[in-house]
Design a protein that fits this description.
By secondary structure, this protein is α/β, with parallel strands linked by helices. The chain has six helices and eleven strands. The strands form two sheets. A seven-stranded mixed beta sheet has the order 3-2-1-4-5-11-10, with helices on both faces. It has a four-stranded antiparallel beta sheet with strand order 6-7-8-9. The radius of gyration is 18 Å and the shape is globular. The chain starts with 9 loop residues before the first helix and ends with a strand.
């Protein structure tokens, strides 16, 4: 998904995701293993990359030029390499101790076959015993999103509408933005699609490519009861 104009106001709007909590969660599992090299999938503007800076080497990639530009200017650290790649066909000539993908980035992949491909690529890029930590929005989350929302944050006014297709399991975010520029507002429109994947499918696919010791959690808590989870976090070991 290319964010275009959305990139410049992404940080202003992404206030509900607790990056510190997610970072502490990742650190908990990383502390149980020798983690030095980290691959971040779908790094966006680098908000979570900032929570990874204590690791020795970080390679962070995204498909959006605009997002990467913001991340690059936000983080000046010799331990971080930013790259433009697509999570569906990324390729690096090295292996990592851990791969992470936060903020439901994988939900943006709309084909089951592509999920299998992504998991295969992650697996091939991990060292033995390497960790793969990622999250996915659930159907309960998408159904809770349904409706229209109007809000204003700093100099951004927006109308956000959500439509969840229960048959195709795809959620549409339809957003009209109005960004204040002096005495005027600049309007632009974005559409984003995310797909719900059954937990059983994700577990089955992870096992199919070779992952073991797969754990699931209700959000970035250490709660293993995911029955009514709005976001499921997966921790899988190669």
């Amino acid at each position: 998904m290319m964010y275009r104009d959305f990139a410049e106001i992404y940080d202003t709007l992404m206030t509900e995701f607790d990056y510190d909590k997610a970072g502490n969660f990742v650190d908990h599992f990383a502390s149980e293993a020798k983690i030095e090299k980290v691959l971040e999938i779908g790094c966006g503007t680098g908000n979570f990359t900032q929570r990874l800076l204590h690791f020795k080497e970080i390679t962070a990639f995204d498909l959006s030029d605009e997002m990467l530009s913001i991340a690059y200017n936000k983080i000046k650290n010799d331990n971080v390499k930013f790259r433009k790649q697509d999570m569906r066909d990324f390729n690096f000539m090295e292996k990592f101790d851990m791969a992470v993908a936060v903020c439901d980035g994988i939900n943006y992949v709309l084909e089951e076959s592509e999920i299998l491909g992504i998991f295969k690529r992650v697996y091939s890029h991990l060292e033995d015993e390497g960790l793969f930590i990622f999250d996915l929005n659930t159907e309960e989350q998408f159904q809770g999103f349904e409706g229209s929302y109007i809000d204003e944050v700093e100099d951004v006014f927006y109308v956000w509408e959500n439509f969840y297709d229960k048959v195709d399991k795809i959620n549409l975010y339809s957003i009209n933005f109005f960004v204040r520029e002096g005495d005027y507002y600049r309007r632009f429109y974005e559409e984003h699609y995310e797909k719900f994947y059954e937990n059983q499918f994700i577990i089955k696919t992870l096992k199919e490519v070779g992952f073991k010791e797969i754990k699931t959690f209700n959000g970035y808590e250490f709660e293993e009861n995911i029955e009514h989870a709005k976001r499921i976090v997966y921790v899988a070991k190669k």
